[in-house]
Amino acid sequence: MPHLATYVALADHSEQTLADSLRAVAEGHARQADVFHTCHTLAGWSDQHREDLAPVVERYGEQKDVDEPERLRADVLTA
User: What pTM was computed for the model?
Assistant: First the structure.
């Protein structure tokens, strides 16, 4: 399974990028309670997905040079 570590890394890094982005959106919309709380809830789900993925990461490892999820992060979210 030579590519499994690549896909495990993509899944893990994508969930982290999604959680970080959702939290950035939540902070940018702190006055809209529904957006703020929904984004934090969804970010928590992504955190849980990463926790659920941890045994797979431990067993198969992660390819270290996978940066594809970073393309998902919009510049306006990090500014």
Answer: 0.80
Residue 74, SS3?
Answer: coil
Task: List, for residues 10-68, the tens digit of each pLDDT value.
Answer: 899 889 989 999 999 999 999 999 999 999 999 999 999 999 999 999 998 888 776 66
Q: Which DSSP letter does residue 61 get?
A: -
Structure tokens at 14: 């994508």
Positive or negative, the Cα torsion across 27, 66, 44, 58? negative
From residue 46, give the alpha-carbon distance in Å to each of 7, 11, 21: 16, 10, 11
Beta carbons of 46 and 15 less than 8 angstroms apart: yes
Q: What does the CA dihedral 31, 32, 38, 43 come to, rounded to 10 degrees? A: -40
39 backbone dihedrals φ, ψ, rounded to 5°: -60, -40
Q: Which two tokens stand for residue 32?
A: 């809209």
